[in-house]
From TrEMBL, chains A, B:
Protein name: Kynureninase
Pfam family of the protein (one): KYNU_C
Record's keyword terms, sorted: Hydrolase, Pyridine nucleotide biosynthesis, Pyridoxal phosphate
The keyword Iron appears for this protein: no
Matching InterPro entries: Kynureninase, PyrdxlP-dep_Trfase, PyrdxlP-dep_Trfase_major, PyrdxlP-dep_Trfase_small
Originating gene: kynU
E.C. number(s) listed in UniProt: 3.7.1.3
Alphabetical list of NCBIfam families matching this protein: kynureninase
Length: 368, 368
C-alpha cells in the first residue's frame, strides 16, 4: 500500500513484520533532529518542549488505530510490564479466585499472570478459547487477540461479552493484531488492552508498548508500579503518591525518549490510513500466499483459513530452523517458532503480491 | 576532563548533567548506523547480531563504573521499575514487618515502596539516615546514595553495615552518584542497587535504567515482573517461567533497543576513565562554585560542605523558579526543585572551571 515510504533492502522479501516492522525511510533523519537538536542543543529544556507529554500524545496516535478515543492509551514500558499493570489493577480487591488465560498465550503473558497469581493468591487457569468457562470465580480473563504461533484470531466481541456476562473484566493483548485489523476497543467496551508497537506498527526494535484504560475505568485504575511519572503533580515532588486522574496514571518512570520519538516518527506512515483497507489488503496477501504454497508444495498450513484471522501464515515443517536459515540466505526473511513452525507475516503497508509469489516459489525450491 | 567529546551548544554553560547528561558528539552518527543498518538493513537478524545480549553487555560497562564485577548488572526498564523488582525480591518470604526508606528519598522510590508495602502487607517507615533504627522488624532498607535535592551523600559502607548487622538487606539507589563517585558495590557487599543512566552517565533522555544483583543473590532473586526476556530459554516459548540462572533473570520484556544502543554509544566517553580522577575533579568544581557564590552573593548553600558529597550545589532561593528562568535565558542551565531550591550539577567530564566562575557571576548579577 505504501511501500515507497519504507526502506526495504535490495534483494530482500521481508515477511517478518509481525516480529520487527520495517524501517520507514524518514525515521533516520527525524532521529538526527531528536538527538542533535532536542537532546544536544535544547538539552533539559526539551522536557517542557514536548517530551513530557509524548507518552499520552503518541498513545492517542495508536488509539486511533485500535478504536480508542483520545485520552485512553499511553505508551511506555514493555508489553510484559503493561500486562502486569492491567492484571494487577483488574484483580485489585476482588473476592474471586482465578485468573483465566488462553492456553496458547504468548509466553510472557502467562508468566506475568503466574506472578500476579502468586502475589495475590489467585489461581491461574489456562483454558482453550473455545471453552473458557468464565464463571463467578473468574477475577479476570487475559486473552491474545491473535495467536502468535498460528495466526488464529479470537472473537473480541464474543469473548468480551462472555466475560462481562460472568462479571469478569477482560485484558486483551493486541501485539499481533494492532496495525492489521480494525479493532474496536471503545465500541466493544473492552476493559483493558495492551500491545507492542514494534511489530505491524513498525515503531522500531523494542519500541515502547502501550496500555489502554478506558475513561470509565481510570478513576479506579490502581497502578501497582506507582512511579513518579504517573503522579498528579510529578514535579511537586510530594512524599505520597497521588495518581493523575487520567490515563497518565498508567505511566511509571521516565520513558526512553529516543525509542519513543522513533515510534512517533514511524507512526507517520499510518497517517490517514484506513484500517479497513489495511485489513482487506492483508487478507488478500495471506490468501495469495496460501494458494501459492498449496499449489507449489505439500506443506501443511496451520493458520486457519477463515475470516477473521491474523496477517500471517504459519506452516508446519519438520526441519523448520534449517529451512528458515536457507530462506533467509536466499533473501526471504520470516522466522520460525519451535518446534516446527515457519512463520510469515504480511505487513500490508509494504508487502506486495510480487513478494508473496516469489517467497512461495523460493520456499518450494527449498522443500521440494 | 573530556569536554572535546561532547556537543555543548555555543553560549551555554550546562550545569544540569545531574538531570540530563550532555550529548557525546559521536552518538548521532552511531545511531544512524543503528537505525539505517541494524534496523533498516539487517532487520530481524540484528537480534542475533548483538541486540539480544545488549542489556547484559551494557550492564557490565556500567558495572565497571560502580564497582561491580561482570555478570551482575543488567540494563533495562526505568529506575522505578527496578526499585520495584529489587524491593519485591528483597522482601520475598520475609517474616519481618517493615520497609525502611530514607525520608528525603527521591519521590518515586517512596511511591514504589508504598506499593510494595500494600502488596506484601509490610509497613513503610520513613526515617532520617542519621537515625534509621534498623532492627529485627526491618525487612529491607531503601536508600538514596545522594540526595537529589541537597546533594548530601550517605555513607554506603556504614549504612550497609548497619543493615547487615540487623539482618536486613539494603537497596541503594545510585541515580545521583553513578558517574561521579567511585562506588564499591561488590566490596561493600551491597545486596541490590538500581540507578538511571541519563544523568551523569549521559546515556540520553530517559535512557534505560540498571539493576545490580550480586552473584550470590542471583539464585534466590525472584523477579516479580517475570517477563520472557528473563527466561532461561526465551525462544523455547515454554508455558511456565523458569528464570535464567544469572543476572538476565532481572530482565522483563523486549528492551527499547534504540535508547539502549544510544546509551551503549554514550558510554564510550567513559572508556579508560578513572573514577578517582572524576571524583576529585567533581569535588574541585563544586568547591569552586561554593567559593564564588559565597563571595559574590549572600545566598544560602544547602549542599553540605563535607566530603563525601554529590557533584551538585543546591542553593536556597525564595524566587527559585524565576531566577532559574532568568539564568537559562542568559545561558546558564541548571534546574529548580520546589519550593525554593536552585540546583546546579557539575559533570566532571564536560564542565570547566571557566564555566563555574561565569555561572556564579551571572547568578550574582541576577540575585543582587
Amino acid at each position: 500500500m505504501r511501500r515507497e515510504l519504507f526502506d526495504i533492502p535490495e534483494g530482500v522479501i521481508y515477511l517478518d513484520g509481525n516480529s520487527l516492522g520495517a524501517l520507514p525511510k524518514h525515521v533516520a533523519a527525524r532521529m538526527q533532529e531528536v538527538i542533535s537538536h532536542q537532546w544536544g542543543t535544547r538539552l533539559i529544556r526539551s522536557w517542557s518542549e514536548g517530551w513530557w507529554e509524548a507518552p499520552q500524545r503518541i498513545g492517542d496516535r495508536i488509539g486511533r488505530l485500535i478504536g480508542a478515543a483520545e485520552g485512553q492509551v499511553v505508551v511506555g514500558d514493555s508489553t510484559s510490564v503493561n500486562v502486569f499493570k492491567a492484571l494487577m489493577a483488574a484483580v485489585k480487591g476482588t473476592t474471586r479466585s482465578e485468573i483465566v488465560v488462553d492456553e496458547s498465550t504468548f509466553p510472557t503473558d502467562g508468566y506475568i499472570a503466574q506472578s500476579v497469581g502468586e502475589l495475590t493468591g489467585l489461581k491461574v487457569r489456562a483454558a482453550q478459547p473455545s471453552s473458557l468457562d468464565i464463571n463467578e470465580d473468574t477475577a479476570v480473563v487475559l486473552l491474545n487477540h491473535v495467536d502468535y504461533r498460528t495466526g488464529a484470531m479470537l472473537d473480541m466481541a464474543e469473548l468480551t461479552g462472555q466475560a462481562h456476562a460472568a462479571g469478569a473484566p477482560v485484558v486483551w493483548d493486541l501485539c499481533h493484531s494492532a496495525g492489521v485489523i480494525p479493532i474496536r476497543l471503545d465500541e466493544l467496551q473492552v476493559d483493558y488492552a495492551v500491545g507492542c508497537s514494534y511489530k505491524f506498527l513498525n515503531g522500531g526494535p523494542g519500541a515502547p508498548a502501550f496500555i489502554y484504560v478506558p475513561k470509565h475505568k481510570q478513576a479506579t485504575f490502581e497502578n501497582p508500579l506507582s512511579g513518579w511519572n504517573g503522579h498528579r503533580a510529578p514535579f511537586a515532588m510530594e512524599a505520597s503518591y497521588d495518581p493523575d486522574p487520567g490515563i497518565a496514571r498508567a505511566r511509571v518512570g521516565t520513558p526512553d525518549i529516543l525509542s519513543m520519538l522513533a515510534l512517533d516518527a514511524a507512526l507517520d506512515v499510518w497517517d490517514d490510513v484506513d484500517m479497513q483497507v489495511v485489513w482487506k489488503c492483508g487478507l488478500s496477501l495471506t490468501a495469495q500466499f496460501r494458494t501459492h504454497v498449496t499449489r507449489l508444495t505439500s506443506l501443511e498450513i496451520i493458520t486457519p483459513d477463515e475470516i477473521p484471522r491474523g496477517n500471517q501464515i504459519s506452516i508446519r515443517c519438520a526441519d523448520a530452523k534449517n529451512v528458515m536459515d536457507e530462506l533467509i540466505a536466499r533473501g526471504v526473511i520470516g522466522d520460525h517458532r519451535p518446534p516446527d513452525v515457519l512463520r510469515f507475516g504480511f505487513a500490508p503497508l509494504y508487502v506486495t503480491s510480487g513478494d508473496v509469489l516469489r517467497a512461495a516459489e523460493i520456499l518450494a525450491e527449498i522443500v521440494n
